[in-house]
Design a protein that fits this description.
Layout lengths: L3 E5 L11 H13 L3 E6 L22 H8 L4 E3 L10 E4 L4 H4 L4 H4 L7 H12 L4 E4 L6 H5 L4 E2 L5 H9 L3 E2 L8 E3 L4 E4 L8 H19 L2
Parallel strand pairs: 1-2, 1-4, 2-3, 4-5, 5-9, 6-7
Antiparallel strand pairs: 8-9
Helix pairs in contact: 1-8
């Protein structure tokens, strides 16, 4: 496998970490295309822990890296160890971990702060003009991560789209099975479970995102 993609996770589970289906579909498509990947996550406490059966907060603490290892079958490294020069692209699945652990968007909205290790890693990919893929809620971080004027989508949620615009980003409405590509900045986004009601819907958009990342790695 000559191409290598870094996949950045934020826990395990849609309510407090990485969305499991989005992550699995991303890894599946990479494997189908013969692209190597390595997973990373910050070695920090989760913002909160949610009982995914009841939707209520649980009185316990969990570590983002340890929980992300569940998705990666143990094959995962701390985000601090991610070196952009070892990879050809980077992809961030969604889930509320992106808005709680990788950033504090869930609490602060457009005033959010991004986890510093993520800022450093993404800056290197962006400066090297390596393709960057984000899905679900993760694209809301793009204006803070990569700068203003970059076209992204989270679907068509007016509140989140408004936050992107207020931070200097360019939001483009998009259907669940499609993608938005900013060719100048080499950023690809898809709504995934911001809109998906079925696994197949999410898969169509996520596969298109990974396919476009694959194409852009050749350019």
């Amino acid at each position: 496998m000559s191409k290598q993609v870094a996949v950045i996770l934020s826990g395990c589970g849609v309510q407090d970490g990485s969305e499991i289906y989005e992550t699995t579909l991303t890894l599946l498509r990479l494997d189908q295309l013969g692209i190597g990947y390595r997973c990373f996550a910050p070695d920090i406490d989760q913002h909160d822990v949610v009982d995914h059966r009841s939707g209520e907060a649980a009185e316990e603490r969990r570590n983002v890296l340890v929980e992300s290892a569940r998705l990666a079958r143990g094959e995962i490294s701390p985000l601090a160890e991610l070196e952009a020069d070892e990879f050809d692209a980077v992809i961030l699945p969604g889930g509320f971990g992106a808005a709680k652990n990788l950033s504090n968007f869930a609490e602060a909205g457009a005033d959010m702060v991004i986890h510093e290790e993520l800022v450093g890693a993404m800056a290197e990919f962006h400066e090297d003009r390596k393709p960057i893929g984000l899905m679900c809620i993760a694209p809301v971080m793009v204006p803070r991560l990569l700068g203003p004027g970059i076209a992204v989508t989270i679907g068509h949620d007016p509140g989140v789209a408004g936050a992107i615009s207020s931070m200097g980003g360019l939001h483009r409405s998009c259907g669940v099975e499609d993608i938005v590509v900013d060719f100048d900045n080499r950023v690809v986004t898809t709504p995934a479970y911001m809109l998906a009601t079925r696994l197949g819907e999410a898969a169509t958009g996520i596969f298109k995102l990974v396919d476009r990342i694959d194409e852009m790695m050749d350019l």
